[in-house]
């Protein structure tokens, strides 16, 4: 299997499959990013538009659940945007996680980006929910597997309230995660690398190592603040943020 075949295989996966690393044991992280880039190329060839990036595995809750303590990056396209009120499409085994979402006002290029310079490039911050849907059975994967699978991405919804980042303390911004009327988990922005701007800086610096930058207008999902919860048919998952409003997903 080569990079192009792996990208096509993962893009076409509609039910659980074995981790890529089972048939490609020496798959490394750099090759996995090449697979991710090739999958983006194939998505664009079929008409999708790049709208930003997501970070994954930026909080302890997520790292512990997945057994991987290295954050990852993945691409976001317009086809992944779930407008408010639209039910989540039928997926393999979706999980939902609350995230803080930046919209960039300026280009942000590493290396050497700090949390402070990163935050200065942000136009607005929103609350959001990401729906992940690993193509791999039982969400069992290595870091290269997850990178090749575009960070388990499926779709995401951005909440109703966007504010300039200088007007909120994002380390204290809380998210309450509700499933069918019960609050099942809570976290603040500090769960994400100490401050979500640290995750943004990490994204800019990691992209710089690949000769890329974060572009104006891009969305940046900074990573699940809490562990993700299964999104079961008929269930309702909501995230309530302290200053960034609430949003609800249904299936
Ligand atoms: C990997 C993707 C992680 C996040 O926000 O941490 C992610 C996974 O958990 O399947 O999107
Ligand atoms: Mg996520």
What does it look like?
Helix 1 packs across helix 3. A hairpin with a 2-residue loop joins strand 6 and strand 7. The protein is 25% helix and 29% strand. The strands form two sheets. Strands 1, 2, 3, 4, 5, 8 and 9 form a seven-stranded mixed beta sheet that branches. It has a four-stranded antiparallel beta sheet with strand order 7-6-10-11, with no helix packed on it. With 251 residues, the chain is of the alpha+beta class. It binds 2-oxoadipic acid and magnesium ion. Magnesium ion (MG) binds next to strand 1, strand 3 and strand 4. This is 4-oxalocrotonate decarboxylase.
Indicate the topology.
Layout: H1 3-11, H2 20-23, H3 29-45, E1 50-56, H4 60-66, E2 72-77, E3 95-104, H5 115-120, E4 122-132, H6 143-148, E5 153-163, E6 174-179, E7 182-188, H7 196-208, E8 219-221, E9 229-230, E10 236-241, E11 246-250
Parallel strand pairs: 1-8
Antiparallel strand pairs: 1-2, 3-4, 3-8, 3-9, 4-5, 6-7, 6-10, 10-11
The protein binds 2-oxoadipic acid (OOG) and magnesium ion (MG).
């Amino acid at each position: 299997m080569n990079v192009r075949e792996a990208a096509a295989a993962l893009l076409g996966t509609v039910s659980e499959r074995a981790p890529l690393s089972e048939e490609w044991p020496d798959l490394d992280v750099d090759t996995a990013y090449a697979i991710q880039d090739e999958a983006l190329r194939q998505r664009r060839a079929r008409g999708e538009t790049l709208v930003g990036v997501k970070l994954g595995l930026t909080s302890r809750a997520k790292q512990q659940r997945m057994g991987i303590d290295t954050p990852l990056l993945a691409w976001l396209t317009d086809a992944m945007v779930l407008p408010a009120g639209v039910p989540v499409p039928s997926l393999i085994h979706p999980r939902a996680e609350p995230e803080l979402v930046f919209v960039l006002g300026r280009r942000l290029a590493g290396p050497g980006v700090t949390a402070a310079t990163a935050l200065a490039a942000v136009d607005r911050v929103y609350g959001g929910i990401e729906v992940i849907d690993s193509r791999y059975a039982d969400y069992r994967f290595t870091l290269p597997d997850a990178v090749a699978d575009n960070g388990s991405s499926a779709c995401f919804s951005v909440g109703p309230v966007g504010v300039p980042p200088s007007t909120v303390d994002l380390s204290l911004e809380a998210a309450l995660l509700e499933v069918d009327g019960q609050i099942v988990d809570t976290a603040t922005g500090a769960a994400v690398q100490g401050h979500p701007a640290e995750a943004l800086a990490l994204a800019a610096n990691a992209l710089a190592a690949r000769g890329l930058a974060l572009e104006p207008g891009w969305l940046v999902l900074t990573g699940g603040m809490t562990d993700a919860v299964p999104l079961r048919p008929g269930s309702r998952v909501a995230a309530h943020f302290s200053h960034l409003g609430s949003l609800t997903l249904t299936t």
